[in-house]
Write a structure and sequence with these properties.
The structure holds 2 protein chains of 2 kinds. Chain A is an all-beta fold. Chain A contains no helices and 11 strands. Helices cover 0% and strands 58% of the residues of chain B. The chains are: A mainly beta, B mainly beta.
């Protein structure tokens, strides 16, 4: 158990809908990262937040957005969902902003878009 | 843009044998990570390699980093069935500031009795 928690574990929804994935980092970690794992694209970095501020962006679609709250939990919002958005979404956390520390991954949320 | 290539992508081997997974990356990477993933599970951190020549060992796994060759290896010694999993290497662009990890496609390792 990495200490990173994610909810829900599974999510099934329809195309065009909007969902929110939630992540709580390890105690003391200020940085949160979101990754997408799919058969087509593999593991891709989406976005990073550090202490409430967006820090780095990866291959995140415009339909997706994220935020980090004062209690440091983070949410990833996915809207206008398409079939291709079906994937495993991981949250990871690390202590510092520049990721020099190890990133610890949560259990993931499996999203299925029908 | 950092690109990370692993090979092989699939490896079936017998218990007791030795093998090496290779990870090449395209540009300067400050550090190199190895993760393990079991089917349907999360990623477990195995090694963080921070400098040229770094070598780390944990049980039957040993990882090394050669920044001049832009190559990291994960060596498996006397494989056992419990090591069956998918192994990912990941680099991190050293352009300064924060960035997420860039993963290879993973090596799906099956160890047969």
């Amino acid at each position: 158990d990495s200490g990173v928690t994610q909810t829900p574990k599974h999510l099934i929804t329809a195309t065009g809908q909007r969902v929110t994935l939630r992540c709580s980092p390890r105690s003391g970690d200020l940085s949160v990262y979101w990754y997408q794992q799919s058969l087509d694209q593999g593991l891709q970095f989406l976005i990073q937040y550090y202490n409430g501020e967006e820090r780095a962006k990866g291959n995140i679609l415009e339909r997706f957005s994220a935020q980090q709250f004062p209690d440091l939990h983070s949410e990833l919002n996915l809207s206008s969902l398409e079939l291709g958005d079906s994937a495993l979404y991981f949250c990871a956390s690390s202590e510092l902003a520049d990721s020099y520390n190890e990133q610890f991954f949560g259990p993931g949320t499996r999203l299925t878009v029908l | 843009e950092l690109k990370v290539e692993q090979n092989p992508l699939f490896l079936s081997m017998q218990e007791g044998k030795n093998y090496t997974i290779y990870c090449n990356y395209s540009t300067t990477s400050d550090r190199l990570y190895w993760y393990r993933q079991d089917p349907g599970k999360s990623l477990e951190s195995l090694f963080v390699l921070l400098s040229n020549g770094a070598v780390k060992q944990e049980g039957r796994l040993m990882a090394s980093l050669d920044t001049k060759a832009r190559l990291s290896t994960l060596h498996i010694t006397a494989a056992v069935h419990d090591l069956s999993a998918t192994y990912f290497c990941a680099g991190q662009y050293s352009g300064g500031g924060a960035d997420g990890l860039t993963f290879g496609k993973g090596t799906h390792l099956i160890i047969q009795p």
